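Work Package 3 (structural annotation) set out to generate three-dimensional models for the target panel prioritized at the project kickoff. During this period the team completed the workflow that converts sequence records into discrete structure tokens, so that structures can be stored uniformly alongside our sequence database. As a representative example, we reproduce one entry of 71 residues exactly as it appears in the project archive.
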Amino acid sequence: NLWSRTWKQMVGFAKLKEEFKKTFLELPHGIPSEDTINRVFYSIESIQFESCFTGWVNSIADLTKRTNNCY
């Protein structure tokens, strides 16, 4: 199953970077399991997520333009 492999890869990557993540995240129970990540992603409303993600990316692009004097 493609998705289960993807969740396993996400958990594996997160575990590799766990010490770094702890510098800005509280992880009292460690890195979430594959099942937890799966439940979170499947509970997200895709249209709402797309709207929020697009807004976030655009805000970063705007900051980059201002920082690089590209106006």
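The mean pLDDT is 86.
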